[in-house]
Amino acid sequence: MKNKISKSSELMWVLGLVLVALGVCICKKADLGVSMIAAPTFILFEFLAPLWSGFSVGMIEYLFQGIILLTLCCVVQRFNWRYLLAFLTAVIYGYIMDLWILILGTEPFKYIWLRWIMLFVGDAVTALGVACFFRTYMPLQVHELFVAEVVDRYKFKLHKTKLIFDLSFLTLSIVLALVLFRDVASFDWKTIFYASFHSIGIGTIITTFINSPIISFSGKLLDKIFDYTPLFPKLETVLKRKKSEQ
Prior knowledge:
Number of helices: 9
Low-confidence stretches: 242-246
Helix content: 55-70%
Strand content: under 5%
Largest sheet: none
Shape: globular
Structural class: mainly alpha
Number of strands: 0
Radius of gyration: 18 Å
């Protein structure tokens, strides 16, 4: 613990929210395809925004996570009051996303070489944020909660469950793009290396393969800098689930 930044568990949660939102927004501006987890939100926003100007990417994000949360309750056949904290986290995350979009803008980066660089920058920032989330007792977002609760409820293997969850989101993203826009005939394979198709592209595939290694590397880096003891130990006691509640 010597020479490390102490009592940083809550800080990890804040950094997780800010960095994941920033990384996703950078990847969106790279226009090579966002991650499979983020894709449904941007696809739904692209479809719904022309129908009502009141929609924002952040709003779609937390509403979509709300649907995932309801699905989780059906899948695990139980409800825990801490699930509501995960939705609150999603709402905060949604507002942070909207703030980053306001700051960064929505126009894709002009140069193709810059898009590729920023794709990897965005992936690295997102992975660092996810690594931060793994090091706090504070509420997770609904995506991570879904995997954790299904594993706990049915005693599945974590990595297999996460893989199935990710592939399900990839499938959902493709289905949403096909059903909502019905313009698959307009897709041109020649554009795959410099533009996405409704937020899905070669960047989505690349992110899938490099995400876990970058998260692991980022975690090791964080472990050298921070001591994750809580600043508010009583809050940790309240938020951490007891085995009798699982």
